[in-house]
Amino acid sequence: MRQDPTGTRRGFGFGGLRLWVLVLFAAYAGYYWFSNRTTDALTGEKVVIDKNISPQDEKALGLQAYQEILTQEQPLDPNSQIAQQVHEVAQRLIAKVPEVEDALASEHGMQAPHVEKSFDWAVNVLQSDQVNAFCLPGGKIAVYTGLVPVAQNADAMAVVLGHEISHALLRHGAQRLTEQKLEQIGQMAGAASGMDQNQMQAVMAVYGYGHALPYARKQETQADEMGLMLAAAACYNPREAIPLWQRMTEASGGSGQPEFASTHPNPGTRIQNLQALMPKALDYQSRFCKGAGSAAAAP
Q: Does residue 44 belong to any structural domain of this protein?
């Protein structure tokens, strides 16, 4: 093998070492990805969840985050009209979780995992102008008062809460933690191979636009579908999802990032997807709604 002017054998100098470092890290990342890959029973899609992250771990993290939020945001009196109405919507959705999970899993010939059996459900309405709501792993739910005038009615509120509850049921939190581990592996590989800051930023940008952001948008779409089925099964009107997202767009001023640069589908895409899901939602309503009727009163 010919010597270079520095006396270093070609293929085994710094450039060769960097390549081998990248190859070894890529091999480890590939092993980590494949060994933690499973099929989600509720969506039928392949997901990657670190086997060391249990639902109990997620629940503990969710509780910690919830307690921190409650020290920063002012919960409404649980006896207030808004809090009671939101609580009722949440309870009706929660009651339908086992049936909807079983139905979704059966569509893929699988058994539902029923992670909700370990949940300690709780619902709070927080005094804030934010047009938002969330459900953390473990079943801790919050609705910001800013969402109430945009939702306008209990049917739309059920669509929002169904979506948020679905994130927890689908273990999207654990999936995001796993994605963060993969990102850390990539960053360690870049640092060990001698990449400079600009090179690292370029690589992470490619990863973000090519994988991380599309993956996040897929999670939102999954939660939209399962949430719509939950709302329909709990006897809420799934058709209210369409005007809800029209109002959400108006509330945000109609502006936002292009879809390819966002963690969420744009409203137009979302509405199209929900319209396509409407026959399925109405079927779930027919199968699982047993006479409670639509709750169209404003929350």
A: yes
- Residue type, position 99, single letter: E
Q: Is the Cβ–Cβ distance between 232 and 285 less than 8 Å? A: yes
The amino acid at residue 176 is R
% of the chain residues with pLDDT over 90: 65
Domain contains 92: yes
Q: Is residue 76 part of a domain?
A: yes
Contact by Cβ (8 Å): 233, 287: yes
Instruction: State the residue range of the domain holding 101.
Output: 37-288
Q: Convert the pLDDT of each residue in 89-118 to its tens digit.
A: 999 999 999 999 999 999 999 999 999 999
User: Could you give the residue numbers annotated as active site?
Assistant: 164
Domains contained in the chain, number: 1
The C-alpha atoms of residue 93 and residue 112 are separated, in whole angstroms, by: 17
Closest among 45, 38, 39, 41 to 109, alpha carbons compared? 41
The residues, ordered by sequence, that sit 6+ positions from 268 with a Cβ below 8 Å of its Cβ are none
**Whole-angstrom Cα distance, residue 121 to residue 138?**
7
**Side chain identity, residue 247:** R
How far, in Å, CA of 283 to CA of 229, rounded? 9
Residue 20 within any structural domain of the chain: no
Residue 5 has pLDDT above 80, yes or no: no
Residue 137 has pLDDT above 60, yes or no: yes
Total residues belonging to the chain: 299
